[in-house]
Amino acid sequence: MPAPNLSLLSTESPTEPTAPAAPRTLDGRTRVGTVAAEDRRAWTLSVDDGSRLEAVRAASCLVRPELGDLVLYVAPTPTRAHIIAVLSPREDATTLAVDNELRLHAPAVTVRTGRARLVARELGVLATTIASKFERSTVVGAALDMVTDVFTQRARHSVRSVAGLDRQSAGTIDQRAEGELLVTAKRALVNGDELVKLDAKQLHLG
């Protein structure tokens, strides 16, 4: 009697071809991908199954995705995706960006950094009180206009150098010096419509 063929009695299923890896997902719709390309406000994401998907940045995602960044995205439909977070940026610098006007409302804002730089075409500051403290300040510009009701300055030493015309106009000018008052010029003119008065214990002319 021939021996039975045991292979026919095996319970193992035949080997099936390996399917492509499914995209990493958290809840069925939220997935992880890598930024492969960028076109203005749209990004191309590469997912684990080898496919690519066009995505836009969600309004809540303030970090701008860069090439090679690992991002978290949600795909409500197979053809539409939104990047909701940047998980692992490749660049050392992180860029915060929005597509429209950004408004910040908070009772108080504190920013601490080693170095800060602000670049803007126009800058407007509206405040009841402005207080600044610094060791050194430098202002370079083409023109400086200042309008105020009261202007007060206090300094231990003051040095001013004007290459061209230095004109001062006021209703009344009162200059006082505890020590010496020195006026030096090639030509000095003092004009008084009604009165010119010099008063001193000694007066030297010439």
TrEMBL record:
Disordered: annotated segments: 1-27
Biased region (Low complexity) positions are: 10-23
Q: How is this protein named in the record?
A: DUF3540 domain-containing protein
In Pfam terms, one family for this protein is DUF3540
Q: Which InterPro entries match?
A: DUF3540
Superkingdom of this entry's organism?
A: Bacteria
